[in-house]
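User: Hi! I'm working on a homework problem where we have to compare a predicted structure to a textbook description. Could you give me the structure for the chain below?
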Amino acid sequence: MIPILFPIQLPGMTLANRQDVFRYVINNFSAYYDSVDIVQDNDEDGLILSSHDDAPYFNFCIHKDGKLEDCIARYLPMFKKYHRTPLIYVSPASSYYCEQIEFEKISDDAFMFLEDESILSNYPVPDSIKVELTEDEDLFIKIWGDSRRDPNDIYGVASEAMVNGMRHFFKPPKKGFSHFATMAYKDEKPVANVVSVYNKDWLLVIGLGTLPEYRKQGLGTVLMKDIIERAHKLGIKTITLQTETGTYNEKYYEKIGFVTRFNGVYYKP
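Assistant: Happy to help. Predicted structure tokens:
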């Protein structure tokens, strides 16, 4: 893998900057282990695809340069082969935007990076909250799924595809990646958890969740504090995550020191 150069500068972006963004997006989604088991990229675009999971999040082409129609056409046989809806992902790496040809926007992701570590580093951990690494897949999935059981909640209901995707993190990681799952306990009861995936350059936070009845008690913040401490011990300086733009989640991450560096948008032709 080509290392990402940080920080990614958006004002006056050059071709080199776009290469960095494109490479980061490819690496970011590749980190989803065998949820994404087909990864292709070339000079103008790339493909992220799952041979067994039809969730849109794991099946799309990524545009970088050239015509959007050419990007979709290049990978259309793969979409058809696996019965996937053709989707295209556009980020600042792209030199041409979908609104110009009236594609349907279906999702907007904020790529966030931890820039102010002092908020988490100085956060006081209550004696009633403990954080531990866990390899208990069934317990982790239960707590994670229960944190997403309300259709009116900010998380929404966890689909079967999302649950299966989280289970993949309890399998051996593919070459170049490692991971850990952490559980937060309140008065010795498991109530919140998160997965972290990392390589030698950066760490990606995935699926932070807290049981509804335990929210706003600092559990998520304690988990995030624990993550940066573990990242430092591993020598990792870049901590990043993805969330929906304009949501409560994005505002929460901003409050604990994350900044949205760029956005990526899913479109449907």
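For your comparison, note the following. The chain is about 30% helix and 30% strand. The chain has a mean pLDDT of 87. Good luck with the assignment!
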